[in-house]
Each structure stands twice: as C-alpha cells, then as structure tokens.
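task queued by scheduler; priority normal; single chain, no ligands, no partner chains; default sampling; output format set to structure tokens
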Amino acid sequence: MSPQVTAAIIAASVSFLTLIGTLAAQFLGRRATREQLDRTFAEQRTRALNERFTTAAEQLGNDKPAVRLAGVYAMAGLADDWAENRQTCVNVLCAYLRMPYEPDPGQDAPEPERLAFQAIREVRHTVIQVTAEHLNKDTAVSWQGLKFYFKGVVFDGGDFRGAVFSDGWAVFDGAEFSGGEVRFHDATFSGGYVFFGGAKFSGGTIRFDRATFSGCEVSFRDTELSGGTIRFDDATFSGGKVYFSGARFSGAAVIFEGAKFSGGTVNFGRVKFSTGAVCGGAQFSGGTVSFVGASFSGSRVTFDDAQFSGGEVDFSDAGDWSFPPAFGPGPWTNIVEVLSAPKTTPSDER
C-alpha cells in the first residue's frame, strides 16, 4: 500500500473518530442539560408547592372566616396537586377541625355573636364537605387510603354520604356529635380501621343508613349515647369486626331497622341498654353477634320481624336482665343458637 493511501486512511479514521467524539460530547452535553433542566423544574415546582402550602396555612389561621374558607379550598386543591405530601395537607385540615370550638350560643345571644358562630361553623362544615367529596368513588382525585385523625372533634353537622373508607384509617375517638345531623349514608368501610371509641353522641342524629361495613375493623367501644338518635337502617355488616363493647345507650335511640349481619363479628359485649334499641327487620345470617355480659335495664331492646338464620347470637352472662329483649312471633323459627339467655326465654316474651 502506497504511503499516500495509508495517509488517506489514517486521515479518514481520525476524522471519523473526531466526528464520533463530537457527537458523543453533544449527546452527553444535551443529557446533562436536560437533567439540569429537570432538576431546576423539580426545584421550582417544590418551591411553588411549598409557597402554596404556606399561603393556605396562613389563610386557615386568619381571623376572618371568609379567608379561612378560601384556605380550606386552597389546602384541598394543594392536596390534589401534591401527591407526595397529600397526607400532610389532609393532616392540616383534620387539625383545623380538632381546634377548640365554642358551642352554639343560642338564639338569645347577641346577633354579632350568633353570626360569628355561624361563619366559623360554615368553615368547619366545608372541611368535612371537601373531605367527604374526595372519599367518594366518583371523585377526580381520591383521598381513599389516607389517614384521617378526627380525635376529639366536635361534629354538629356534616355529610359523609357515599364516602369510602378503605385500607387507611379514620379516627373519631373522643369526638363529640352534638346537635345537627351527621350523615354517613351509603358510606363504605372496607379494610383498614375506623375508630369511634369513646365518642359522645348527645343530641342530633347520626345516620349510617345503607352503610357497608366489610372486611374492616370498626370500633364504637365505650361510646356514650346520651341523647339524639343513631341509625343503621339497612346497613350491611359482613366480614371484619364491629365492636360496640362497653358502650352506654342512655337517653338515645339506637336503631338497626333492616340491618343485615352476615359473616364476621359484631360485638355488643358489656353494652348497657338503659333506653333500649330497635333491631326490627334485622337479618342475622352467618357470623357471630355477641351480647355477652350486656345489661338490659330501663327499656326493651326489640327484635320485631328480625330473622335469625345461621351463625350465632349470644346473650349469655347478661349483667342485667330487668328488661329482657322483646322478640316478635317469627324470628325464632330460624335461629341457630342463642346461648344461655338467663331468667327469661324468647317463648316467655310472647
């Protein structure tokens, strides 16, 4: 091969390698630039979201109810946009509800005082509203599976209709339900935990109509029902565990009209029924419903038209049998087992 040809090949190779090097440098440079842009965009986004969080929090703490109301929607909107800190935004909204809340001053209070109370109550009910909307199955951005900490919150109204509490948990321990109507119509409690332990129900109405409790643990342990009404009309209890153990039903009506108990466990152990409860038309099929150690005094627990088929209903070791449960003429033909009901049998009640 002639020196001229060799030189030409070498020159071509050098040119090719130079071209490759140039292209590689350009590619790496563009990649580095793109990564830098991505980092810059992420930093700017985080900065903007933090600024929105600060603004919304300041609005929630404002003295003017109208500004607080804007803060509720701002915080909820931020939760929708900021998935990685959605729980933090929800925590702030729950914390707002846990803040000290002065009771209704009544119609005889001066007008400025009444208007101020109504304005603050509107803000609180809006927090409940936006929370419930984000727990609805048709919501654009779901908050299902998050944690909701309502311990000690005063509920004097609110609407959780259609809300789905799944996988995460909701804590209503020590909450006070007084006046107004709080609705859990068609709500679904599946998986996770829902706690109403130690809650106080006094006045107003709490409704769980057509609510579904399946595969989760729901606790009404040691609740105090001293007024108003709590209704579980046509509610479905299937799988999982529902505890009313240690609850005190005094001065309040507890109604399970048409409720369906199938599978799982519903525990009324040690409950004190001093004002009775209505289970008319309820269906008990499969699973276990326990009234072990419950006290029946002051008013009757009625099971008119209830149906018992399969499973186990246990009234053993009653603490007080002064007013034993009243059963209609029909349900006992289908009952599987009632264990050791003391002093009075169902046939005596007829």
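post-processing summary
- Residues 64 and 120 are 9 Å apart (CA to CA).
- The helical segments are 3-60, 65-81, 86-98, 111-134, 346-349.
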